[in-house]
Design goal:
By secondary structure, this protein is α+β, with helices and mostly antiparallel strands. The chain has three domains: 80 residues, Beta-lactamase Inhibitory Protein, Chain:B, domain 1; 121 residues, Roll (Nuclear Transport Factor 2, Chain: A), CATH 3.10.450.50; 112 residues, Nuclear Transport Factor 2, Chain: A, CATH 3.10.450.50. Helices cover 28% and strands 35% of the residues. The chain contains ten helices and 14 strands. Strands 1, 2, 3, 4, 5 and 6 form a six-stranded antiparallel sheet that branches. Strands 7-8-9-10 form a four-stranded antiparallel sheet. A four-stranded antiparallel sheet has the order 11-12-13-14. A hairpin with a 6-residue loop joins β2 and β3. The chain is extended, with a radius of gyration of 32 Å. The relative contact order is 0.09.
Length: 395
């Protein structure tokens, strides 16, 4: 026992003499911290002056800083912290005039869209006791191209149908003007009825086709179309007419009229001789038709890259994010061993130089599923290319 105690004392003494080399400390591990939007050279190269906000957002994503009081400025800020020290910084500031990008400042270079100065009027010099000179001619101003309001009216109607399909009752009711008067009931009773009918079904699909926009003046428009409605317990297909009024830049529904069911119209069209209403396409209509054909061909070829490239940056899927929708489309197209998409009865309507709609019958067949649907695509021209920015389908 005594021997054990001696050995234990020796061991304790040796431990007390152990010490770490001077200046040696165990430092905690610090991970790299990345904050903000990292802009790659490829992303920066795609950024061009004149691009609309939707395309800038598609290229760079949501800005790190977006001030509600300075809506014309977006800031993309990025920093990399390594071992507690900032080793990399980026700060890209974008300025907009309305919807268009007019200035790019990355801290090194500044790109600015050229500003056209107004013409300078020089007053004539009148000599004393001279004959009265001719009045100076007013400066010539080139006419400024005004945007066709038909496109704004069409977007409002499409938004109304999209809110209905998404079962967004508040968004649906917000599409109606304060002066809208329902038939046969008070406004309060009608709103209660709509909330109840939109809230009860589990699924609602509203598809518009054969859309026709007629401008009565700058603040009033009439839109007629065929409306296909389907829910889990009811479906119909009717002709509908909406009267819209422009209030503070928003087109709202002030009147609504439901016409006859579409069956009678379809029967009358079936009795017409084939090709009776066919007319040659102009260059813009042909370009839209080619865009629809490329979209259908890419789908049939199961080429997901070309298929997704047919959709523009402004396209917003229903009830999911753009990324989730793209992942879903890739999965569904990839699973099928064969796909055939046939487009028939194609009708193209140009709303202005950069907006068009294409309505057609779509026959889809794969190795495990097939269906037929009436579909309408809303297309927007960017540069020389037409992209899909909205789509509606009805069985």
């Amino acid at each position: 026992m005594r021997t054990k105690l001696i050995l234990l004392s020796v061991l304790l003494a040796s431990c007390s003499d152990f010490s770490m080399p001077s200046g040696t400390l165990l430092a905690p591990y610090k991970m790299d911290i990345r904050q903000g939007n990292y802009i790659t050279p490829e992303m920066r190269e795609k950024l061009k002056l004149g691009m609309p906000r939707s395309q800038v957002h598609y290229v760079l994503g949501t800005p790190m800083i977006s001030d509600a009081f300075h809506g014309n400025r977006w800031d993309y800020v990025y920093s990399l912290e390594h071992h507690g020290e900032i080793v990399e910084k980026q700060h890209l500031t974008l300025y907009f005039d309305g919807d268009n990008l007019v200035k790019i400042d990355d801290g090194k270079t500044v790109e600015t869209a050229p500003v056209v100065a107004p013409p300078t009027i020089v007053p004539p010099v009148v000599a004393k006791q001279a004959v009265e000179p001719e009045a100076p001619k007013p400066p010539e101003h080139k006419p400024v191209a005004k945007a066709d309001p038909e496109a704004d009216v069409l977007k409002s109607v499409q938004g109304w149908a999209a809110a209905w399909s998404a079962k967004n009752a508040r968004g649906y009711l917000a599409a109606y003007a304060a002066e809208f008067k329902p038939d046969g009931m008070s406004r309060a009773a009608w709103e209660k009825q709509r909330l109840d009918r939109i809230g009860k079904p589990k699924v609602i699909e509203v598809a518009l086709s054969d859309i026709n926009v007629s401008m009565e003046d700058d603040d009033h428009a009439t839109v007629s179309f065929t409306q296909g409605y389907r829910s889990d317990n009811y479906r119909d297909r009717v002709e509908k007419t909406l009267q819209l009024v422009n209030q503070s830049g928003r087109w709202l529904i002030a009147g609504e009229h439901v016409g006859k069911a579409v069956k009678a119209k379809a029967k009358a069209q079936a009795n017409e001789p084939a090709g009776a209403s066919a007319q040659p396409l102009n260059a813009s209509q042909q370009a839209v038709q080619d865009a629809v054909k490329r979209w259908a061909d890419a789908w049939s070829a199961r080429d997901t890259d070309k298929y997704l490239a047919s959709y523009g940056a402004a396209f917003k899927p229903k009830e999911m994010s753009k990324a989730a929708w793209e992942a879903q489309r890739k999965e569904r197209i990839g699973k099928a061993h064969s796909i055939a998409v046939k487009v028939s009865e194609l009708q193209i309507k140009l709303h202005d130089g950069s907006h068009a709609s294409a309505t057609f019958m779509q026959d889809y067949r794969s190795d495990s599923y097939k269906d037929s649907a009436r579909k309408t695509l809303l297309l927007e021209k960017t540069g020389d290319v037409w992209f899909i920015v909205a789509e509606q389908a009805a069985k």
